[in-house]
Specification:
With 236 residues, the protein is an alpha/beta fold. Helix content is 39%, strand content 24%.
């Protein structure tokens, strides 16, 4: 059974539908990139998958042992969040909150997990540093380590390389690809179609037209060819 199955899903807010009749599934080990025009509902879709927003219509089904509280989430950062006055260790450890239940403290295993994920992301040396003192790329590694504390199965990432310079962007995408090779399922929103084509196994395109399939199928589709051409034209 798929980790995640979406059936006839319509998205919106205040009775305004921004995407409808979405149907797709995500299997264990997939790397799905969600692309589309601005305002097409990509972030709304991700928040709906996370149960942070109610769907207008349709179903989201979890399978293969995946539970709603076992999904790691890296949202887009706001200016306020970038200036958050907490230590790196505190922020990474907060990713274990879903494991605590009603327990008001972190246990030894959760603390070990946070240390392990800081090492995994190469940020152990910053553990006692204030988060707001770090560079943008370092902050994203902190948030990725935090998301990993919530899951061993699936990560939902909303523009994880937004605002980063090309070198740091490449490093971030490399880290995410490495996690996928370890068996973690990735669902990522990106405006960077070049990165999506390089790393992804599947692409979901939402907007005026909808497509979901493998990377190669997308590149051969009319919608994929048109979107790639528009992106290349916009970069010139």
């Amino acid at each position: 059974m798929a980790l995640l199955t979406v059936r006839n899903l319509s998205l919106g807010y205040d009775s305004h539908i921004i995407a409808e009749n979405l149907n797709f599934s995500v299997n264990k080990g997939d790397y799905l990139c969600i692309v589309g025009e601005n305002g097409s509902g990509k972030t709304t879709l991700m928040k709906t998958l996370l149960n942070l927003r109610e769907p207008v219509r349709g179903q989201i089904l979890f399978g293969d042992g995946l539970k709603k509280n076992e999904i790691g989430y890296l949202p887009q950062q706001t200016a306020v969040q970038k200036d958050f006055p907490a230590s790196v260790r505190e922020i990474v450890l907060s990713g274990c909150q879903g494991r605590c239940g009603l327990r008001p403290f972190y246990n030894r295993e959760e603390k070990r997990l946070s240390e392990e994920n800081m090492a995994r992301m190469g940020i152990s040396e910053f553990a006692n540093r204030c988060y707001r003192e770090l560079s943008g790329g370092q902050q994203q590694r902190v948030l990725l380590a935090r998301a990993l504390c919530a899951t061993r199965k699936a990560l939902l990432l909303d523009e994880p390389a937004s605002g980063l310079d090309p070198k740091v962007t490449a490093e971030m995408y490399g880290l995410i690809a490495g996690l996928n090779r370890e068996g973690i399922t990735i669902i990522m929103i990106t405006h960077d179609i070049a990165a999506a084509v390089r790393y992804t196994t599947h692409i979901l395109h939402i907007g005026a037209a909808v497509f979901c399939g493998t990377r190669d199928e997308y590149l051969e589709s009319d919608i994929g060819k048109l979107f790639m051409m528009q992106k290349k034209g916009g970069e010139q």
